[in-house]
Amino acid sequence: MSSIEEFRARALAWLEKNAKPFDEAAEYDLEGSSVPLEESKRFQKALWEAGFAGITWPREYGGQGLGPEELIAFNQEAADFDLPVGPFVIGLGMPGPTILELGTEAQKKRYLPPLLRGDEIWCQLFSEPSGGSDVASLQTTARRTGNGWVINGQKVWTSGAQWSDFGTIIARTDPTVPKHQGITMFIVDMHHPGVTVRPLVVATGQAPFNEVFFDNVEVPTDAVVGEVNQGWGAAVVMLRNERVTIGTGTRARSNPLGFDSLLELARARELETDTAVRRRLAMLYARESSLTAYGRVLHEETTAGAEIGARGSAAKLAGAELALWAADLAQDIIGSDIALGGADVERVITAIVAAPGGATAGGTNEIQRNIIGERVLGLAKDPGVDRNTPFNQLKLSR
Ligand SMILES: Cc1cc2nc3c(=O)[nH]c(=O)nc-3n(C[C@H](O)[C@H](O)[C@H](O)COP(=O)(O)OP(=O)(O)OC[C@H]3O[C@@H](n4cnc5c(N)ncnc54)[C@H](O)[C@@H]3O)c2cc1C
């Protein structure tokens, strides 16, 4: 047996003993809160102790120091189980890899092991009421003091802020230079008394994200990630990690709009022999499989330290488009029962309602197309009329 096969067998044995098999009837959990937080933390710790957290991260920062093959093998085995790790997805997919790439040695040693061990939860504080796509127009400020910085402003759509211990925030540190140049990324303690988190409830009735207010929140000098006023570059690194994380999920039974789930739904409604439904299910299988294969290539390249650039945007766009396409198929399979609901379709209906959110989170489909057009296809660049104007001379709604 190869070492990968041994690893796979060990992962499956551990999952069978420690994780719940995927349950079709369980509620689809947009917030990641259907299990108590302590249970999520306990599970993440057990995952780490067993050697299945931070699989590709270096050992000196709590990782396992293994390669993408092991990561993919674990994800494939985990696809049939319900892992209650929702609160850790952002930290492990976005701030964690960014600190790994740009953080100081002290930051990596302080923050990465507790994240992998399930002791601390993270969120990403980028979007603001006045700037989501145009995040470089952000208006939250960080003012230098004698021994650090003071942050004031508001963020919005912050997933998981309600239970986060830390966040990575981008703030304006120099308004006298053009908007991309005067931004800095900081690590902020979400328990600081000046941080207020308010939930935002969506159409599903769940509250997957929040508004977060910063009122004279002090952060020390060593909270800067990367260089002062170079936060745009750090944000690009994090958005690239986010797009790979969102866009390259392995095919999973637990995805209510995935092939396995919709095939089961079609069978239950005796539609699996309907030619049009069969054709669309086959297409879903093909698209899901190609995306999984593409994700595998990107994970391999990322782990090998290669620059995947705008191809992360292609993965994110393909994943979001596939979810919207699968949502249409799911609606046609459910038919008029969509108005009645019921235990067998509840998860799928929640996922249909949430699918457009996936086309917005991590940068909208239009923004991904702009990036692909400019950086992959070499089309003309967006003129960006305000690109060279000092931020404090821009006409912004404040
Ligand atoms: C489920 C979910 C989770 C999220 N989690 C987080 C989080 O944890 N942290 C965080 O910081 N943010 C988060 N967000 C926010 C997300 O990043 C923003 O919503 C997104 O970047 C879009 O910004 P906006 O909402 O301000 O829309 P806008 O930027 O106002 O865009 C409105 C519309 O205009 C289009 N548009 C804008 N500019 C252009 C352009 N140049 N060319 C073509 N079309 C354009 C957009 O595509 C969109 O259709 C989350 C969003 C969702 C839906």
Automatic annotation (TrEMBL):
Name by which UniProt lists this protein: Acyl-CoA dehydrogenase family protein
Presence of the UniProt keyword Oxidoreductase in the record: yes
InterPro entries noted in UniProt: Acyl-CoA_Oxase/DH_mid-dom (IPR006091), Acyl-CoA_Oxase/DH_mid-dom_sf (IPR046373), AcylCo_DH-like_C (IPR036250), AcylCo_DH/oxidase_C (IPR009075), AcylCoA_DH/ox_N (IPR013786), AcylCoA_DH/ox_N_sf (IPR037069), AcylCoA_DH/oxidase_NM_dom_sf (IPR009100), Mycobact_Acyl-CoA_DH (IPR052161)
Higher taxonomy: Bacteria, Bacillati, Actinomycetota, Actinomycetes, Kitasatosporales
Transmembrane parts of this sequence: none
Residues of the Acyl-CoA oxidase/dehydrogenase middle domain: 123-217
Swiss-Prot/TrEMBL cofactor(s): FAD
Acyl-CoA dehydrogenase/oxidase N-terminal domain location: 5-119
Sequence similarity: Belongs to the acyl-CoA dehydrogenase family.
Signal peptide: none
Acyl-CoA dehydrogenase/oxidase C-terminal domain span: 229-377
One of the Pfam families matching this protein, by short name: Acyl-CoA_dh_1
Keywords: FAD, Flavoprotein, Oxidoreductase
PANTHER family: ACYL-COA DEHYDROGENASE, ACYL-COA DEHYDROGENASE FADE34
